[in-house]
Amino acid sequence: AVVLPAAAGAAVTRSDAHGTTLLDGRKVFPIVLAKGPERGSTTPTGTDALAEVAGAGVNFFKIGPATTVWTSADIADALAWNRAAATLGAYTWINLSTLSRATPGSNEHTLLGQVITTLEDDPSGAAIGMWKGADEPRWSGFPPSSLQFAYCLATSRRDPSWCAGEPPEDDDHLWVTIQAPRGTASELAPYSGVTDTHGVDHYPVTFRNRDDPRLHEVGEWTDLIRTITPNRSVWTTLQVCASGSSDPAGSGDFVLPTTHQERYMIYDAIINGARSLAFYGGNLPRCWNETDTAHGWNWTFWNDVLEGLIQEINANSPIAPALVNPESTKVLATSDSTTQ
What we know:
The protein is about 30% helix and about 15% strand. The protein is of the alpha/beta class.
């Protein structure tokens, strides 16, 4: 039997006045794997893979095709993912990037409606947490105007004329847009108008600069997104493995963040306004050793680095109340100064 993480009907995600994610009215700090281990796989010690990561505090899984058109097989896989997430009390972040520039009457328009309605109409739809829009749209050359129709259709929000007379498919879930760490505030700001949550991905630990990575760039880019996102719903995607992690000479060597580097980036993002964190690249074979290859995911990085850090910030951690209540910061007057 599938135990759904919410009562009958779809889970509803919104943002409060401080940018904190509300899930059915409950404040949560999304901790996302993009992507996590496969459904039905096991850890190197033989335990269920998804139960392992959810047990540490992961509460969202990114699913769906990143660069290819959705197919009936992708829809079936997403349904299975929703059911798997539901059994764990977790949620899904569904990748609609390839449909994010749909135009009225196009094949993408039809497919966008099909994906949303099929997933929501299934009982497992209560596990849907958020939609993912265009990936790095400013860097990819997609103007905000090209994203208006899909955003309106999938959320019912902003100017109703953007829906071009078409009935919206959903109004229950946040739409998340992630930018590349490129561009100026004025260039990126218009995209805040076509998304609910605005984010950035940045992976400063690369093979080329492994001896001196500029870790604080994570905080700098997070802060820039914060300054151009009026609702303060800010998302930072951090690295496990990325394109720059492996030796460009093709030796097969790679570099991943140390525990200290990953911890610095996590807290640098949070301090500079991140209200959600995602961890990208555990599924990329370029950063696997033999054990990881045998089990289809970067369990080495998980065991050595990520699991403990997620436990530091999960819903049961000592700092969890502060992560979902940033407004709890108080200004304290002292005898000789004012501190915060």
